[in-house]
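For this section, I looked closely at a protein sequence along with its fold in token form, which I now present.
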Amino acid sequence: MKPAPHGQTPAAGICEIDEIELTDRDILDAMDHIPGYLDVSTEDFRLIYHLAHASAVDHLLGKISPASLLRNDMTPLTADLPMDQAAARIAASGYKSLPVLDAGRRVIGILTEADFLRRLKADSFLELMLRLIGDPGSFTHRCHETRVAEAMTTPAVTIPVVSKFEDVLNAFTRHPGRAMPVVDAQGVFVGMLLRKDFLMALHRRACVSAAAELAV
């Protein structure tokens, strides 16, 4: 059983889109370009900018959530499953990892391709393939005798299904893996959130926002 890697905790606000600091000169310059008299102080202007910025960020990112992106088309693993059967299940799933669940469908770990390499003391799949060619019997025996519980990463980093964009970004910042199990309020597994799906959703939202600006 391998401990989960400890990433560096991101500083507060890492997931925020930074506001541009406006000086009084910037504000007065902008107000000079607006026809008519504006009864707005520079401090009121900053407040309006702050609220508008927050609203724009929420509009851009608010719909990106685990609930809208999770995948649940895989068969999870159990801790007592032999590694050879786990490998076959991961390969059939098309994913690079699968969650490990207990009898109550709560996540107790995650098994990744990297966990296989680590358990079999290989630095790469090429090295593993060469060792398999040289001694297939030993490889088969070790995979059949070893259980998932002995190789999985635990505890797994999970994300609540109700999490917001900021929570997901912070979780992926802490967690180097390609996917995270998504759980409900009772901690029960509901699906997997892939890093690539999250980044693609962010990219699509940015493109939609840019296109809307150009259309104005």
